[in-house]
Structure formats: C-alpha cells, structure tokens
C-alpha cells in the first residue's frame, strides 16, 4: 500500500518489474511462509508461496490474489496521498487496501491466528498462495503462467481473494462468478458515403441495419433473443432465491449507486438475481455515419456495434460465440456485409452449495462473526483470475446476521471458491 504507483502497460516492461518484485516479496514476508519464490513468465512478476501441512493426507488449498493496483493521483479524488496509508474514522485509506493487498494480508493474519489458536506448527491444509502482478491490466499472461506452473499450482480447492462483503455486519461469501464474452460487429454498405437525396430509399443503410440488429437483441420479456444463448444455463435453486431475498437490499439506494432512474431486465427475476445469476447481453457502443455539428445528408458506408455477454454456470463461451456468429447475418438485409471480432472470453464458475470447501468457509465465517453457520446463495463483481474482464458472481449470506438499516450490494466481489 505504501509504494510508488506502477503503471502497467506494454511499454518498458523491464522498468516496471523491479518495484513490483520488491512489493510482491513483502506480501508474504510478515508470516514467513517457508517456501517463497517468484514464478518466471513473460509478464509482470507473480509471487508464489506454500506451507505444507504436517498431515500428508490434508487437502491442498490455493489462495489467489494480486499485488498490482490501478494508477492513482490526487486529482482522481483522493483526499490524501494514495500511496501513503492514512487511518480516518477507523478505516485505512491507501491504494490497494481494498484491492487487493488488504485481502492478501488478511490471509497471512488468518494463518497466524490459526497456528496460535491450535498450537500447530503447520497449517491444517497444504497452503499455497499465488499473487499475480497483472490483474489490473487484464492478466494477459496469467493463463500461460498457470499452464507453465500447473504441477506446482495443483490444488483441491481455490479461493479467490480479490473480494469484499455485502456490508460490515452482513458476512457473505461468494460461490460463483459470471463469465464474459465480447464482440465488435462492423457493418458495410456502399463503398463510400453516398448522397441520401440521390440514393436514399433504394440501397441498404448500414446505420439502419445496426439499429435493427440492436433492437433484435432482446424479446419483449427482455430475454436475449439469440437462439441457443441459454443452452446449459444452471438455473437458480429455490434455496438460492430465498437467500437472495434475505439480504437487506435497498433498491432505491442501489439505483442511486448505479446513477440510474429505474430498474429493467429479464421478466420473472429480481434485481439481484438479474445482476448475479442470469446471463445478459448489453450494447456497449453503437455508431455510424456523420457525427459532427450540423447535418450531412448521407447514407454512411459503415456502422459499428459493440456487444458484451455476461455468462453464467453451464454456458460455454465458444458455444455463445458460435450462436452470435450465426445470429448476426440472419438479421442483416442483402447488400450489408459484416465482420465480427471476438475478444478473449472468461468462463463462468460456480461452486456447489454442498462442496466441502465451501461448507468449511461458511462455518469459519459464522464463527468469526458470531453468527449461526452461514447459508450459501450467489453475488456480483469485477474480474476473475483468468482473462480479467468484468464479471459478476453469486454470494452466500450468513443466516440471521445483524441487519443494517439500508443495504446495497458491493460494487466489487464477495469471496468465492471454486474447485
């Protein structure tokens, strides 16, 4: 948290590595995990640490986090220097305190408390920590890193520690993460912009085709209208829906956070169900034709649409890509050519509610917060540790926690596990 900002990007890769290596080494130094090392790969450094249990039959748990942060400056809205930690009203303000150095540090404190409370000299599980350095720039090398070091990173369960909770007095743990697929669609009509007075009404207009394409994306119930899009979707269980409803959700406050003036979405689902556990299709951008001041009476030669799809457990990004690829040309009139470019996709993840690792986390959370054992549900965030694009997840709500007077879901993740 107290360090010079490291701006990640393609330029000067060697220059950015030295401060990150020093920062990464500090992440596990305080509790002296006996085996610590950097993992060699083409990107910014990742730090790895492990502490084997004395019990050879113990399960292996891998904890994921990241040590890099977004660049920050006073003009971004900070009331203090971002990289000089300050405590105000019982809260620590510093770059990375909540994303993600604080979470990584909590795990080291947890290990320390575990050993002190039990009198053990090693953890009850074979513990591994993987702390990467490129999460905030999309983790472009993370897949290669995991594949290169797969033998070392093998685990029975993975805990992603880049997260938060519903509120201070409503302990939650997340059980799933939505995936993401993105594409850009370019439409081409005339070989150049042409005069609408001479040709309008007689040739296809790519801007009109883009508008019709976007309008056809959803049906009257706000369901995605692409055939095959919902194939394999894991539906919410009755118990999950009950647990969603138990959360102290203030929709008006949520709307204020969203800077929006009303809710809208797939019929038959609540707001939390829509943003946490249902697949979506969103228009991220649309353009075409003359955009300058005044008028220019043309039929444009091209238009563009950017789409993103949030995916839930059971959906295959490749299948969604094929479905979108088949759907787009079926919406276009003769005379409109198209190109589709897909970005790397992120797979969704969901841990079963009866998974032993999840039950262990839930029991521990309940004991730590002095509540009954937490009961799982699902929740919503930012980026999973594979391709690092925006995503959202399912969370678990404690049974009978103390309730705040007004609750709003976190803008980032709650903790989730996936084996």
UniProtKB/TrEMBL annotation:
Return the Gene3D superfamilies for the record: 3.30.70.360, Zn peptidases
Which ranges are annotated Low complexity under compositional bias?
Answer: 1-12
Q: Which residues form the signal peptide?
A: none
- NCBIfam families, alphabetized: PRK09104.1
So which domain of life are we looking at?
Bacteria
InterPro entries from the entry?
Answer: Cyt/Met_Dipeptidase, Peptidase_M20, Peptidase_M20_dimer
Bias (Basic residues) ranges? 13-24
Name the SUPFAM superfamilies on file.
Zn-dependent exopeptidases
Please provide the record's keywords in A-Z order. Answer: Hydrolase, Metal-binding, Protease
Task: Indicate the segments forming the Peptidase M20 dimerisation domain, all copies.
Answer: 176-334
Keyword set includes Hydrolase: yes
On whether Metal-binding is a keyword of this UniProt record, the answer is yes
Biological process (GO) annotations?
proteolysis
Protein name per its UniProtKB record: Peptidase M20 dimerisation domain-containing protein
**Matching Pfam families:** M20_dimer, Peptidase_M20
For this UniProt entry, the molecular function terms from Gene Ontology, in alphabetical order, are: metal ion binding; peptidase activity
Region (Disordered) location:
1-42, 369-419
């Amino acid at each position: 948290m107290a360090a010079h900002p490291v701006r990640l990007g393609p330029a000067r890769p060697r220059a950015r590595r030295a401060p990150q290596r020093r920062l990464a080494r500090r992440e596990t130094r305080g509790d002296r995990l006996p085996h610590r090392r950097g993992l060699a790969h083409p990107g910014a450094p990742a730090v790895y640490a492990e502490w084997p249990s004395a019990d050879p039959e113990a399960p292996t748990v891998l904890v994921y986090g990241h040590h890099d942060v977004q660049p920050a400056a006073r003009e971004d809205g900070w009331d203090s220097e971002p990289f000089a930690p300050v405590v105000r009203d019982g809260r620590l303000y510093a770059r990375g305190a909540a994303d993600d150095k604080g979470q990584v540090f909590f795990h080291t404190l947890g290990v320390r408390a575990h050993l002190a409370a039990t009198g053990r000299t090693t953890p009850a599980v074979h513990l591994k920590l993987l702390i990467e350095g490129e999460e905030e720039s999309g983790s472009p090398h993370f897949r290669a890193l995991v594949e290169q070091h797969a033998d070392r990173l093998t685990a029975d369960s993975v805990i992603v520690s880049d997260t938060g909770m519903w509120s201070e007095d409503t302990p939650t743990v997340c059980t799933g993460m939505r995936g993401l697929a993105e594409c850009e669609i370019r439409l081409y009509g005339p070989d150049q912009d042409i005069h609408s007075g001479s040709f309008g009404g007689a040739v296809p207009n790519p801007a009109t085709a883009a508008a019709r394409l976007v309008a056809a994306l959803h049906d009257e119930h706000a369901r995605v209208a692409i055939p095959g899009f919902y194939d394999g979707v894991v539906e919410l269980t009755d118990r999950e829906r009950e647990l969603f409803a138990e959360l102290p959700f203030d929709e008006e406050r949520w709307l204020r956070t969203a800077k929006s003036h009303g809710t809208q979405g797939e019929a038959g689902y609540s707001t939390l169900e829509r943003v946490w556990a249902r697949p979506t299709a969103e228009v991220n951008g649309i353009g075409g034709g003359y955009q300058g001041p005044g008028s220019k009476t043309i039929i444009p030669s091209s238009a563009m649409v950017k789409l993103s799809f949030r995916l839930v457990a059971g959906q295959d990004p490749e299948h969604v890509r094929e479905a979108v690829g088949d759907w787009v040309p079926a919406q276009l009139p003769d005379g409109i050519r198209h190109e589709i470019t897909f970005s790397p996709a992120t797979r969704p993840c969901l841990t079963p509610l009866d998974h032993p690792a999840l039950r262990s986390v839930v029991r521990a959370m309940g004991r730590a917060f002095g509540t009954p054992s937490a009961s799982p549900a699902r929740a919503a965030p930012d980026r999973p540790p594979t391709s690092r694009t925006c995503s959202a997840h399912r969370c678990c709500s404690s049974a009978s926690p103390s309730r705040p007077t007004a609750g709003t879901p976190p803008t980032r993740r709650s903790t989730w596990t996936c084996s």
